[in-house]
């Protein structure tokens, strides 16, 4: 069981919204909800933007996939107790160059499932000592435990945006 971190972290906004105390269970539930919500979306709706200059559904999912990869990289570095400061990234630059429109919605969901399955496997095979190692990411102290919960919280944040601004239903 990977329980929530008990200290302050810049990722606390993502972490505080998660109701489940076990990161592995929360990750699985979050993955299933995300896939089921977007799996039924017709292909033409993947191009929808709720306002001029905002990301399409495809671009948002590509952003989520990119962030999952970056968080996954941070996770493995921290689990291996690597103290090298890890850089941040510019999400808008990534979105501009992500080529989301070159993929179908199903391909973007397949990518998400693959990334998440690796994260799930990694978290199923780690220990508390590694989870609590304090490293640096984006100029802030962070643990692998916090990253695990932030991954769930980040997707949950975007699920809420999809419901509120893109009118997607569960």
The ordered H/E elements are HHHHHHEEH
* Share of β-strand residues: under 5%
Instruction: Return the domain count.
Output: 1
Give the strand tally. 2
- Biggest pleated-sheet summary: 2 strands, antiparallel
Structural class: mainly alpha
Q: Kindly, what is the distance between the CA atoms of the first and last residues, rounded to a whole number of angstroms? A: 27 Å
Percent helix range:
55-70%
CATH topology: Four Helix Bundle (Hemerythrin (Met), subunit A)
Describe the structure.
The structure is a single chain. It contains seven helices and two strands. It is mainly alpha-helical. The chain has a two-stranded antiparallel sheet with strand order 1-2. A hairpin with a 2-residue loop joins strand 1 and strand 2 (140-143). Helix 2 (23-39) packs antiparallel against helix 5, helix 2 (23-39) runs parallel beside helix 7 and helix 3 packs antiparallel against helix 7 (144-165). The chain is globular.
Helix/strand layout:
Elements: H1 12-16, H2 23-39, H3 57-79, H4 91-96, H5 105-124, H6 128-131, E1 134-137, E2 140-143, H7 144-165
Antiparallel strand pairs: 1-2
Helix pairs in contact: 2-5, 2-7, 3-5, 3-7
